[in-house]
Amino acid sequence: MTATGTPKMSTAPAAPRDRIYWSLLIGVLLADLLSKQWAERALGLHAPEEVVGHWLRWTLTYNTGAAMNLSVGSASRIVFSVIALGMLVYLFRLYRGSHPTERATPAALALISAGALGNLVDRLRHSKGVVDFIDVGTADWRFWTFNVADMGVTIGAVLLALLMWRSPSTNPSDENPPQ
User: Fold this and answer.
1) Catalytic residue among 32, 122, 132, 135
2) Which listed residue, of 86, 98, 131, 175, carries a Cα 20 to 30 Å from 38's Cα?
3) Which residues, in sequence order, are CB contacts of 93 under 8 Å at separation 6+?
């Protein structure tokens, strides 16, 4: 508080963790939401449009389930929304628990969080499901159609796995091996 009783504003610069996390989260989320909005306006449902031959196409679809059409029937929308909310809370706690100078872990957490949030927005805004439109493959084989949010989750999860694999174990039993 200042002498006049007003709250004192902090002028300390944001920690690297915070700048990286929030920049990536907002950037990927906006890219996801805007690209889905474009896809719904510009593409016909299930009508592939070649971008790079048969290797990359835009094909608008809606996924009422989760990754790779995983489904729990008519409850999918509610179940996957609740799971996403729980995971977002958990991921945010991991971010807040990371060291202020850390960069890689907050980046991974931001990518996963942005993707989860982007797909959650789709589930909450309508019952059609999550908007997917990126279609890759060959003339004879196609990968599952996906979106920018899915790329964020995948890249973030791979990065987080690599970081965990490279970090020294924090298991106390590893510090004192049996003799």
Assistant:
1) 132
2) 86
3) none
Question: Where in the chain are the domains?
Answer: 16-167
> 125: number of CA atoms within 13 Å, CB side?
12
The 3-state DSSP class for residue 138 equals: coil
The residues pairing with 45 across neighbouring beta strands, listed in sequence order, are 60
The question of whether 32 is a catalytic residue gets the answer no
Active site residue 18: no
Average pLDDT, the chain: 87
Higher-scoring residue by pLDDT: 45, 63: 45
Q: Tell me if 17 sits within 8 A of 100, measured CB to CB.
A: yes
pTM greater than 0.90: no
d(CA 74, CA 89): 25
Inter-residue contact 155 to 115 (CB < 8 Å): no
Q: What type of residue sits at position 107?
A: A
Q: Note the pLDDT tens digit of each residue in 115-147.
A: 999 999 999 998 888 999 999 999 899 999 999
